Amino acid sequence: PGIASYDPGFTNTASTRSAVTYIDGEKGILEYRGYPIEQLAEKSNFLEVAYLLIHGELPSQSQYDSWVHDITFHTFVHENVKSLMQGFRYDAHPMGMLLSAVGGLSTFYPEARNIHDAETRHLQIVRMIAKMPTLGAWSFRHAQGKPYVYPDNDLGYAENFLAMLFKMSEPKYAADPRLVKALEVLFILHADHEQNCSTNAVRSVGSSQVDPYSAVSAGIGALYGPLHGGANEAVLKMLRRIGDVSNVPAFIEGVKAGNERLMGFGHRVYKNYDPRATIIKKATDDVFEVTGVNPLLKIAVELEQIALEDEYFVKRKLYPNVDFYSGLIYEALQFPPEMFTVLFAIPRTAGWLAQWLELVNDSEQKIARPKQIYTGDRGLVFPSREERW
Ligand code: CMC
Fold first, then answer.
1. Is residue 370 part of a domain?
2. How far apart are CA 53 and CA 31, in angstroms?
3. Which range marks the domain in which residue 264 is found?
4. What's the pLDDT tens digit per position in 174-210?
5. Residue owning the nearest CA to atom 21 of ligand 1
6. Structural contact between residues 215 and 202, judged by C-beta atoms closer than 8 angstroms
7. What is the per-residue pLDDT across 223-253, written as a single tens digit (0 to 9) for each?
8. Is 91 annotated as catalytic?
9. How many separate domains does the chain show?
10. Catalytic hit among 142, 192, 267, 274
11. Which sign, positive or negative, has the C-alpha torsion 216, 153, 73, 355?
């Protein structure tokens, strides 16, 4: 009964109204709260962008200072969360660990269930943005069998994360400022992307009025899936398979013949170019200045050049997307492929929480409960076992 339109994957159904992120795929525009991504990547830093996403406007100096102070104050996690993470198998996927740890935080902060109180909500938002790098870095150390490194609150957000990942001994960790800047830019680019699969998951679960830790852990679950967070890893595998610049033309011919896809190219929304890809390419140069050039870069550049001039790709409006270069950067920074998605989840937490807050404050929001089109049997008569057997 009732009329339902069939729209699997919500390709034509708006699930919400939102004032957080604007995308114009035809024109290659991405804006957070009205500010173009290019300007944010050039002039801002991740914590300021997180403030913008959450609060809807840029901070004054004192608002910025107390935001950074509060986030820095909350970077540590309860020792029992550490024990929880240490209980995982030695080869546990870091995303599985992150998902569980964030979900587990809901039990450490039971007051978080009071989502109707603005101050309580704000505290959980600060806590989650603050603790994400700590949990992400610990999931990385765990896989390496190394002791977890506690946050150093004299360091900035990205630098602290790098220290928790890579610090080897007691002396203070000092990351190259070019790497810190590149990581800040990557974090800004990944902070939000309107109603993608994981954000939709956060909103859908959040609409039950559960605490934000549980809602965000649902988002991490969605991001864990290869169709959402896994494309940059696939790009690296592809580049490695191609092996040498001389093999690029034959590979492109194979793509055109329909044998496989050129990973890191094309986008459901961006049909002109992905503005994040242009920014990331510049960050790639900066990182390689420090780490030395990833030998796979030559193959990537050649692929891009050939594809951008080839009629097959031009006709289908296929351009490099954000994942074409991000894997190369992460690999140069010595992250194993399983960590790539964690590096996505940390900044996206700001976007998830901005969208969650918008959801909670929206008086028209109902619990997410899509219609279905039923295709099964109806009104059967249950036969006794004697009749069936
Ligand atoms: N290589 C070769 N051909 C392609 C590619 C590609 N990467 N992407 C699309 N096409 C072709 C496709 O075969 C089709 O051709 P035809 O019209 O002859 O059948 C046409 O272009 C349209 O493709 P589509 O699958 O209808 O496009 P879509 O909007 O459904 O898919 C996409 C978008 C991103 C899934 C797809 O472009 C793709 O698979 N790209 C490679 C994987 C990738 O890089 N994913 C990361 C996306 S960015 C992640 C994010 O924003 O979070």
1. no
2. 11
3. 231-332
4. 889 999 999 999 999 999 999 999 999 999 999 999 9
5. 316
6. yes
7. 998 888 888 888 998 999 999 999 999 999 9
8. no
9. 2
10. 267
11. negative
